[in-house]
Amino acid sequence: MPRTMDRDARKAQLAQAVWQVVLDQGVSAVSVRTVAERAGVAVGSLRHVFPTRSELVRFSAELMMQRVTERLLATAARDEPYEYALAIIENVLPLDPDRRAEYEVNLALLAERAAVPGLQQVSIDAQRQLAELCARLVEILTDRPHAPLLARRLHALIDGLAFHLFHQPVDSDTTWALDIIQAELTTIAGKTNNDVTSH
C-alpha cells in the first residue's frame, strides 16, 4: 500500500508540474524534460512513471477532471435547491484566479486531443459529466426528472459563460455572469425575482 500511495503521489506531483508548465509557457512547452525540471525530478524518474509525453498529458487532464468532480461533490448541501444549484455552478465557472487557471489548463490540455490517444475520451467524459450535472440541477429545481431542453440550455449557458469569463481581463467584474445564472435558475425553478434572495 505505501508503495502504491507513493506512486500515486508522484503521479499527482508530475501532473501539477504539467499544469504549471502550461500556465507559464503554454501546452507546446510540455515535454518530459520540461516537466521533470519543473517537478525537480530526473528525466529517467519521470519516464519510469510516464514512459511517453502522451501518457503524461492524458493523466494530467484526467486528474484535473477528477479534482473538479471532487470539489463539486464537496459542495455543502443547502436547504433551498436554488441556493445549492447556484453554489454548484459558481464552483464550475472560472470566477476566481484558481478556477481561471484550472479552466486555462483544461482548455490547453484538451486541445491536444487530436494528438494524444485517449484524450478525446477524456473530453467526451467531461462534457457528459457536465450534462449530467445540469440535468440533476434542473431536476432538483423543478422536481421534473425529464426536462432535457432545460438541462441542455443550462449546459450551453455554463459553457458559454465560462468561455467569456476566461477571455475577459483578469480581475474584471464577474457579477454579470452570476446575474445571468441567477436569472436562468429563477426561470428554471419558475420563481419570480422577489422569491430569490439577492446576492
UniProtKB/TrEMBL annotation:
The keyword Transcription applies. PROSITE patterns: HTH_TETR_2 (PS50977). Residues 8-68 form the HTH tetR-type domain. Keywords: DNA-binding, Repressor, Transcription, Transcription regulation. Residues 31-50 bind DNA. The keyword Iron does not apply. SUPFAM superfamilies: Homeodomain-like, Tetracyclin repressor-like, C-terminal domain. It holds the Pfam family TetR_C_6. One of its GO terms (molecular function) is transcription cis-regulatory region binding. PANTHER family: HTH-TYPE TRANSCRIPTIONAL REGULATOR PKSA (PTHR30055:SF226), HTH-TYPE TRANSCRIPTIONAL REGULATOR RUTR (PTHR30055). This is TetR family transcriptional regulator. It comes from Brevibacterium aurantiacum.
